[in-house]
Structures are given as C-alpha cells and as structure tokens.
Amino acid sequence: MTSRPETSLDPALGGSALEAAGRVGAAVQSVISGKPDTTRIALTVLLAGGHLLVEDVPGVGKTMLAKTLARSLGCSVRRIQFTPDLLPSDVVGVSIFNGDTRDFEFKPGAVFANIVVGDEINRASPKTQSALLECMEEGQVTVDGTTYLLGRPFMVIATQNPAEMEGTYPLPEAQRDRFMARVHMGYPDPVSEAEMLAAHGAQDPLDDVTPVTDATEVRDMIDAVRRVYVAPSLHRYVVELVGATRTSPNVRLGASPRAGLHLVRASRANAALSGRDHVLPDDIQRLAPAVLAHRLLLSTDAHLARLTPDAVIADIVARVPVPAGP
Predict the structure, then answer these.
(1) Residue 234 — left, alpha, or beta (φ > 0 → left; ψ -120 to 50 → alpha)?
(2) Which of 2-6, 59-63, 144-148 has the lowest mean pLDDT?
C-alpha cells in the first residue's frame, strides 16, 4: 500500500499528549501486571473518546483495571454498582420538588462525572441499562423534558460477567453498540500471578496510584488524536470489513455503521500511541476484534460449530484484501 512516510507524531499535533498518555499507561501497568495488550486497548479507547467494556469471569481484575485507569487520570470519577434493584433515576438523576422554592430541582445522578465506572453492568435490569444509552452516545442526559450536558471528557468503563453466569441480564444490542471496544482480562500467567500475590497481599495497590494528568490534558489528547490522518483507501477498507460482517453466513446481525466509525477513531488513537501522525492497515487489523466482535450476533450454525465472534472477525480480516493504493 502506498502510504505517507513513517514519521513520528508532530509535537504540534500532540507530542505532549503522547507523553501524557505514556504516563497513564505506566500508572495502569504498575497495578495491572502482565496485561500490556489489555492496557493498550483501554488507553486507546480513552484517547479515541469512546467507552470500554471489560468482560470476564469474577476475580481476574476487571474492576481493578477500571479503578486504576480512573484514578490515574485526575478527573472526576463516580462508581455505579449495578444491582437488580438499581433504578434509572439512580444513574441519570431525578427532579425533586422543593417546598421552599415551590419548584422542581434536578439532582444529578452518578453519570455526571468525567469517568464513570459501572461495575457488573449486566446485573441490572435492561430498563436501568438503557439509562446509559443517551449519555454514552450524545454526552447528555434528558430528564423530565430537560436536557443536561455532561462534561468532557466523558468515558464509561463498564465491567460485566459472562452472560451464562447466574443473576445476569444480557446487554441489549443497542447498549453493546455504544461501547467502542470490549476486552477480556483472562487469567494472569504464573509469574504475574505470583508477583500479584507478593505485591497485593500487604496493601491495596491502588493506594500508590496518583493522578498523572488532568481533565484538560485528557481533552487535549483526544483532540490531538482526531487530527491523525486516515487515507481514503483505509476508509474504504473499514467499510469492507464492516460490510463483510453483514454478509457472513456465520453472522445473524452484523456490525453497524457506528462500529466502522469507532474502528476508525480507535485506529487513529492506536497510531498516535505508536508515535505516528497517520493510520496504517495494521492499526485497523489489530483493533478489529476488540471493536467489532462484541457487536455480532452469530448464526445458529456458528453456535453449533462452537465459533466465537473473535474467530469470525479474525477470518474476515484474513479474507478482506488490504488496500493497495491511497
């Protein structure tokens, strides 16, 4: 493919922002050891201005990853523990009548923060889950006909247990589509697990995590990433990848146009983290499973064949030709 020359990220484009991103990544890795790929995707989603879904079995560090990333940013942070009795008003807020002023006053919910940590999001009812739809897509909340804007940056980092576990409600398709990427923590390797036992046994590792940036610098990072160049041929490449999910015999519901937009934004962020001012096909291919897989509904035959969404995306990436020109 003919592309722009391999250059480092121009300081005017965001060299200082890249340095700040490196500090955030180092802070997260100081607590979450042995998971560089997971940390990288979490940081990519942050720089792309998206939302992150962390899925895996209990006890592998999902909430620890979310809390560590939130604490390292120095932004306002709110945590929501999703439970079956949680109400939508607990999430977005509620209007309460004030007897002194004889008027209704809005009491903001937990989403009014820069970083919202949603723990075990799929333990709440679908009605409560849907309370996040507007704020995740539009950066605002509407209560009783009045719209309230959320601050920037705004990121939801949600954890969930596998859907087959007891007491869980599968996330609706519209809710999953709002998340830019999904990552699996997985079990740590034996060396990392032994280091965790030694380091975490005496004290909470979060006690040593201090903010390494602030909301203003995070906004600057996001703005810098938006100026990373994407060639027209790569836009077409993303469209072909997303379109292939809709025609695959293994897929009952393919990726949406929003998925393609998220893939481009995440690829920009990955390029910036690599010190480049332009996106390469490798950026798109690397992020395609994390960005696209959680949006797919597989066909019955695919389930019977024990295929996974990640395997389907890997097959599509292998089959769709990489563009040969600009």
Answers:
(1) alpha
(2) 2-6
Helix (H, G, I), strand (E, B) or coil at 263: helix
**Residue 76 falls within a domain, yes or no?**
yes
For the entire predicted model, the pTM comes to 0.87
DSSP string, 245-258: HHH-TTEEE---HH
Helices vs. strands in the chain: H and E counts, helices first: 14, 11
Residue 1: inside a domain: no
Alpha-carbon distance of 194 to 183, in angstroms, equals 23
CATH number (domain holding residue 39):
3.40.50.300
The 10s digit of each residue's pLDDT in 197-228 is 777 666 777 777 888 888 888 888 898 899 99
* Cβ within 8 Å of residue 298, ≥6 positions away: 250, 251, 252, 307, 309, 312
- For 202-236, what is the HEC assignment? CCCHHHHCCCCCCHHHHHHHHHHHCCCECCHHHHH
**Domain housing 38:** 11-204+212-319
The rounded radius of gyration (Å) of the Cα atoms in the chain is: 20
Number of domains observed in the structure of the chain: 1
Question: Which single residue is written with the structure tokens 């700040």?
Answer: 20
Identify whether 184 is part of a domain: yes
Least confident of 108-117, 121-130, 241-250: 121-130
- Domain annotation covers residue 326: no
